Amino acid sequence: MTGIIVVGVDGSETALRAAQTARDLAASLGATLHVVSAFDSDRTEVFGSGSDKWIVSDAGDAEKVARSVADSLRTPALKVTYAAARGKPAEALIDEAARSGAQLIVVGNRRMQGLGRVLGSIANSVAHNAPCDVYIAKTDASE
């Protein structure tokens, strides 16, 4: 399988585990890994002193998370891209997979048990609405 594997990250340890699983799948399948971080709001703040101005936004923060994880997963043999995507996490992953023509979305199994299962999880939403195959990685503590 050549193509694109999308994985969502939010800076959490469980998301990093899902991203590591996605990296391993992409490497073994010869696919490109596309790391995505979602942002739901459009808060933007401008800071400045004199003529120097800095713009800080939720999109910028999400892109930093995606870039950081992508950089940590990159190997010479693996193409890794990253992006910030607007929307709730499940919607952002689904939209980014559709936009990029992904063959697979990798998500973690966080919140798939107990009360989280009743209230819903990102993995559940993605599995039911994805435009491609979905791989649910075991990311909870295995003890």
TrEMBL record:
UspA domain: residues covered: 1-138
Coiled coil spans: none
Alphabetized Pfam families for the sequence: Usp
Family per similarity comment: Belongs to the universal stress protein A family.
Protein name: Nucleotide-binding universal stress UspA family protein
Originating organism: Arthrobacter ginsengisoli
